[in-house]
Amino acid sequence: MAEGRYQDAATMLESIVARVERTHGASHLEVAAPLNLLAMSYHYLARFMDAGLRYQRALAILEAHARGRGDEAADIFHNLGGLEHAAGNWLRGEPFARHAVMLRTKLFGSRHPAVAADITALAALLDRQGQFAEAERLYHRALTILEPEHGAEHHLVAVALNNLAAVLHARGKVADAEAMFRRAQAIEIAVLGPTHPTVAYSTNNLAILLKDTRRPTAAVVLFRKAVTLFSRGLGANHPHVGVCLENLSQVLRRTGDASGAKTAARRAERIFAGIDAVTNDGVAATGTINPWATPYRLIARASAIHRIGVFSDDAIAKGRKVIEYTGERISRRESGRRWDPKRSYLFELTEKVHLDGAIGGSGAEYINHSCEPNLKTRIVRQHILYYSTRPIAKGEELTVDYRYDHDTDTMRCYCGAPGCRGSMNLLPPKRKKKARA
Ligand SMILES: [Zn+2]
Q: Cα of 413 to ligand 1 centre, how many Å?
């Protein structure tokens, strides 16, 4: 099974990375390539945090050797976009994917097939955010590069067609979408064979279309096939398998197969329970930090305060802008729906506008609370900025005072500072600044 294959690859790459690190040192240029491959194998195993941290380390190594704008770096930005996509965090993946397109265009020109692959990945992140017009435009652009390069019957053309069809479906052009899904699938089956994992994507998308157009019996057949192909290609516990099973469960119910529906739903639940989610909607944590949100080299890793935290690889002087806290802009009401004291990255920007750092966050949302923090918040023209309150040493963990409202759920504090209040909540009745677990 493929899960075994990816697990074997990960084990082998772990030992290769360790050996190269022992021989040359952990930040040697030689480490970057195997580290990227190791991250990819974690990515396929749905170990998103393990993947994210390695991609970022590989990138830091390339940057340290003045290779941050090369083809290898573009690959890693492309992969980071793909990782966030797999983790369900389309907004967070977008800047990485855009950067890959930009770097690759500078390197090879705008009509290179590698650029088309980057454009396809970016478009996929946009269409998942509902930005259908730009996504459609980009898929067409990718196709005008890929078709002359590879011919109309190439599997990369099929991938772009499959994605474009999903946009057409989302925009209500159902008949065009169905024809295009079938064309994409026919190319994939002809070129790659009927059991290739790539065929799963078009099969799944076509099944969703059949489900939406009230053809549940035909949809059941295709969802079952997609489950098998995804399981074989990505492992039985990959979130793609879970999403397929959820859909399968719904269409089985419509065909009157209640027990089959229940079994599929349970399998889906088990898969999602095993994923390190940061939201109740199933978005997974990747531990990545958006390099454009900070002028410093920051890295997320295990923290003594709480699970993971953010550490500085640079010394930072007092009074510097360290990182911007970004996230999806949502209403107060939506913020209430998403609030979960165990896992929440919500920030109250104004009375009406909240930011959800779990979606499209810069990585600042991983910064832990301390009652004696080294960062403080300043809101400048609707931007949330973290400034250093004192000099921060290289290797030190970054912290900020969450200043939870005194009248919301009391959150115990384990910061260990001499002046610890014992809770992350404010004592006097001041306004809530930040809410997060
Ligand atoms: Zn404390």
A: 5
